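During the no-cost extension, the postdoctoral fellow (Dr. R.K.) reprocessed legacy sequence entries with the updated structure-token encoder. One reprocessed record is reproduced below for audit purposes.
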Amino acid sequence: MADDKEYQRLRQIVTNLMVRIEDNQQIQARFNDFEFQLLDCDRLAPLLDKILIDAGKHFDLTAVSLVMYDPDYSITSLVEHLELENYAKRFQLRYSQEFFVSLYRQSPTVRLGELDVLAATRLFPGVDNVGSAALMPLMRQQRQIGSLHFASDSKSRYSVDKATSFMWHLASMVAVCLENCIALEQLQRQGMEDILTQVHNRRSFELEFGKELERAERHQAPLSCLFADIDHFKQINDSYGHPAGDRCLRQVAQLITTELRKTDLLARYGGEEFVVLLPHCLRDEAQVIAERVRLAVANNPLKLDQNETIPLTVSIGLATWQPGGETRQQLHSCGESLLAAADRAMYAAKRAGRNQVQNKDVKIK
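Re-encoded structure tokens follow.
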């Protein structure tokens, strides 16, 4: 009788062990499948979708949130550039390590368990039914670059007695994928940015110009264009040297930027010439913006290191295109005509004495 009970006890142990092994295999398969999906992402937006939206469905979670460490605000700038603010409270950026120290103390390791109200509110704002959570530090080369958080409405889902090996591996994969995607996005952005002035370059402008033309035609909204050329720029280079000319270009780019709307696009078109696209902007409003730009440049001479100043002015040409039901094939011609009109207007401003705004009508070819 005693042997039979011992046999039954051992059999139950083996059965439980086999069930646990099978469960672990299923869990591992689920984690592996999700990690392969992460590896397929080569852009930041799809990767964030996968982490913040798809992970919740894949792992049957109440909420998912991600916090990235951004001490130099480079990720913030990238997020704004890519217009990724729609992830709202699920994706946060922190500029000091205090947040991560408060989560993990001095030992960044996977944490499981229930959260107090304050922690739950910080990690999952707007989510009321957080029963338990998994907090996963994102580590790269012994540096913490962020923190990933899973929430469940079950208090037992992420209890402290659960194994964390799968989550450690997932956190490592997320960290690698985030770092790679951010690096690729920043590299691509640099290829679309003028290194000297840090505004769009001509290649970037030409790509965005086509999109703006299509958007204007789709909404039947006016699209205005400014060409701004720095007056007497060659004389500045000849008299003060190319370093002063470079500073001049940077300052003018910054001054133009301060006078534009968030939806406007500024690019260095070539040499000392800048181009601005003003979506949803009629000629009168564009004239006001152009005049603000002209005054901003004229009122801010370039200060040299030797307490010497260089007066700066720009000549600005303005043109406005009002869509009239053009086909996609006709948009290219409309764009060429808009740029040509703004360019003619800029040269008219030069001929009329510089430091002024001129406008020309758009003549569709």
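Residues 210 and 332 are 8 Å apart (CA to CA). The mean pLDDT is 90. The remaining legacy entries will be reprocessed before the final report is submitted.
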